[in-house]
Amino acid sequence: MRKRILHVIIINLSVFICNVFIQLLYWSFIIAFITQCEYILYIFIRILWASKGTPLSASERQPVSIIICAKNEARNLKKNLPAFLSQNYKDETGKTMYEVIAVNDASTDDTAQVLQELELQNDNLNVVTISPHTERNLPGKKYALSQGVAQAKYNWLLLADADCTPATGKWIQYMVAPLAAGKEIVAGYGGYLKTAGSLNAFIRWETLHTFLQYSTYIKVGKPYMGVGRNLACTKAVLQKAQQSEIWNALPSGDDDLLVSICGYKNNTAVICTQDAFTYSDAKKTWQEWMNQKQRHLSTGKYYKSNIKLLLGMYGVSHAALWLCFLVLLFTSYWKMVILLMVIRCTVYWLLWMVTNIKLQEKNQVYLFPFFDIGWMIYNFAFLPYITWKNKKNWK
């Protein structure tokens, strides 16, 4: 008799605990759904009004210094540097209004030879060479960038990477236009060239998704990052960032830290027109891409507290929504969670489609469901680098 009573008690207790757990999952799903909708309606929807900008006329132009830091980038420099050196950025008399500073950071390949040949052919190319034996006061790329800034003749700076190329000859005209209007930092889009394969498709979507986030955060007055392969700023604001205590924390991350340290509502702009894009070759293997993302994501822990909270809530709500949804499909709540998930996904995927169009990305729409779930896995995989670990190497 006692055993039967005990058995009934255990069963009832198990049912009660199971019901409580399901209730917690359901309300967690509802909270995550509401949170995701708030991000859409308050922040991400502003991509609809992303500025295409207006190119500077010849009479408005001020001289610009383009800084490109390179370490063992001979092949990329030979392929991409001519596009930087042939920009249509001249004054009313036809005089070239910009210089390109290429910093050779102790390369061991043919970088020095490639730069020497290009320097002989282009009067507006200035090569800065750092010896392997040079004593450094800054880690990694930060030191190379500081040397480039020190050699820059002009107050307007454009930062790019050796492995990228401007989409058009009007790149400078568009990217520095907000500087002429009084802004100090201008974030652009650095896309990846389309090739076959799932890795390339996910890299291009993840880059699009990242742009959607940082561009709309700029729109709401909360700038926190840019991409170093397409970023304009004044020399004064970059030098201010270099004096910050957190500037030396990482060998790279200069782009994010510049915006995070010095960006605020009224001094930061974003440009969203193809004339102002840059493009790079995406990584070919998952391991190469993971190494790159570990370096990129290491900067996030140095963002301002309110930004970390906002980004964290977005990531957590995204993961909670999908995890709770998958479990609740096997409960009595299945109809409601399917309805809410359809609403959420429809709005999100439409927003991604609009961003796709604005950024001239192609053939990604049918992959949105896989990317949506994949981004949850992405966040779990890189959590150590997002929260506490640092990637120590630049290259």
Any key phrases for this structure?
single chain, 395 residues, Spore Coat Polysaccharide Biosynthesis Protein SpsA, Chain A, 10 strands, 7-stranded mixed sheet, alpha/beta
What would you say this structure looks like, in words?
By secondary structure, the chain is of the alpha/beta class. It has one domain (32-395): Spore Coat Polysaccharide Biosynthesis Protein SpsA, Chain A. 52% of the residues lie in helices and 12% in strands. The protein is built from 14 helices and ten strands. The protein has helices at residues 2-42, 74-85, 111-121, 140-151, 171-175, 177-180, 198-219, 235-242, 254-262, 286-297, 305-328, 334-358, 368-381, 383-387, and strands at residues 64-70, 98-105, 125-130, 156-161, 164-166, 185-187, 190-192, 231-234, 268-270, 278-280. The chain has a seven-stranded mixed beta sheet, sandwiched between helices. It has a three-stranded mixed beta sheet with strand order 5-10-7. The longest helix is centred in the N-terminal third of the chain and has 41 residues, at 2-42. The protein starts with a helix and ends in an 8-residue tail after the last helix.
Q: What is the fourth-level CATH superfamily?
A: Spore Coat Polysaccharide Biosynthesis Protein SpsA, Chain A
Query: What does the largest sheet look like?
Result: 7 strands, mixed
The tally of strands reads 10
| Largest sheet: spatial strand order | 3-2-1-4-8-6-9
What would the CATH topology be? Spore Coat Polysaccharide Biosynthesis Protein SpsA, Chain A
Q: How far apart are the first and last residues' alpha carbons, in Å?
A: 72 Å
The CATH architecture term is Alpha-Beta Complex
Helicity range of the residues? 40-55%
Mean pLDDT, rounded to whole units? 91
Helix and strand element order: HEHEHEHEEHHEEHEHHEEHHHHH
How does the helix and strand content classify structurally? alpha/beta
Beta-strand percent range: 5-15%
> What's the CATH class label?
Alpha Beta
Count of helical regions: 14
Q: For the CA atoms, what is the radius of gyration?
A: 24 Å
Number of domains: 1
Shape: elongated
Poorly predicted ranges (pLDDT <50, ≥5 residues)?
none
